[in-house]
Amino acid sequence: MKLAYVDACVWISLVEGLTTYQPKIRAALKSLALDNWVLCTSDAVRLEVLIGPLRKKQAPLAMAYRAILETTPVLKTPKSVFTDALSIAESERIKAMDAVHIAIANHYGCGRFVTTDPHFISLSLLTPLWIDLANTDVSEDSIDGDARADDAHAG
Question: What domains are defined for the chain?
């Protein structure tokens, strides 16, 4: 079984990001699924995607994330995660929480690390699949529409 670990930033960009990002993210995830990759996540992802909506009392947004997480296999956090993450953070020169994601994905032999974060492009431990959102055509209308959506979430 081919496992592809989907980083929190992918889900956040899909759910809360500009609407122009969504087709690119969906296409990348669909391409993996069609190539028999199993998309997976972890409790570390759960923490990252839910903390904002829960703090801001945004129940519909939290429900949207929970719906995604319920349909995506969750890799259990290995006991060695923090020891492994420390070594990974040092060798890969990444932040602690990012290293936790890599440690979990590496522990389970994930063949891909799916992300929208350019800091992962040069990973040596895992093969990153970077979804480049910087080259997404963003019109002013989509920015205005997304700002209105953000205002609706905040209210």
Answer: 2-130 (3.40.50.1010)
